[in-house]
Design brief:
single chain; 203 residues; alpha+beta; 4-stranded antiparallel beta sheet; 3-stranded antiparallel beta sheet
Length: 203
């Protein structure tokens, strides 16, 4: 529903308060109060309602129904007001409708009236691009999930025999398979170099 903003009634109320002293200053000036009252009625009554069936135009003097089949398009005036162009060539002012409301009217009409601003077209293009991007992501994830588990097993089985650990030694340490063992006696003191008296043998 498109109508004059409700805060406009506050302006009318302030106008009414300001006119009261003049309206009762002299006989006959009470007729001036009809101005703010008429403005209030105009603000409350004038509106345009858009539904999937058509437009409902309500003015101060009456109401008119415009089905979408009877509306050929929309026209703009120099004051940025919107008129409905009928199929017979006539025009009907749409109270409360401004140029910023055109995408909404086009959307409610389900495409019967084109959007001259192009806002809906841009929104549809963006939605298509996001949908295509989402589909591409789903395809990539599906391709990754179809990878055979044998590939991981083949990667684990690619280790050679040299990578395995050898048997544990007497001291509990594990040596690498194929590595040369320590020679017995290396790093130790030979018995023939030390006599029983604790003196080292001469050269």
């Amino acid at each position: 529903m498109f109508r004059t903003p409700a805060p406009a009634l506050l302006v009318v109320f302030l106008l009414l308060i300001g006119m009261l002293p003049f309206a009762f200053a002299a006989p006959g000036l009470q007729a001036l109060l009809a101005v703010p009252v008429g403005l209030a009625v105009w603000i409350v009554r004038n509106r345009t309602t858009a539904t999937r069936h058509g437009l409902t135009v309500r003015t101060t003097l009456g109401t008119r129904e415009l089905p979408w089949e009877a509306v050929a398009g929309l026209s703009l005036t120099r004051k940025a007001k919107v008129h409905a162009v009928l199929a017979d060539g006539g025009t009907v002012p749409l109270p409360g409708v401004r140029t910023r409301h055109l995408p909404v009217i086009s959307f409610v009409s389900e495409g019967r009236l084109p959007d001259p601003s192009g806002v809906l077209d841009g929104t549809r293009d963006t939605a298509r691009a996001e949908g295509a991007r989402a589909n591409g992501t789903d395809d990539t994830q599906s391709a990754e999930s179809t990878e055979s588990p044998n590939d991981a097993n083949d990667a684990d089985g690619a280790k050679g025999p040299d990578d395995t650990e050898g048997p544990s030694g007497p001291d509990g340490t594990k040596g690498a398979s194929g590595a040369a063992g320590a020679r017995p006696g290396d790093g130790g003191t030979r018995d023939d170099d030390v006599d029983h008296g604790g003196h080292t043998s001469g050269a």
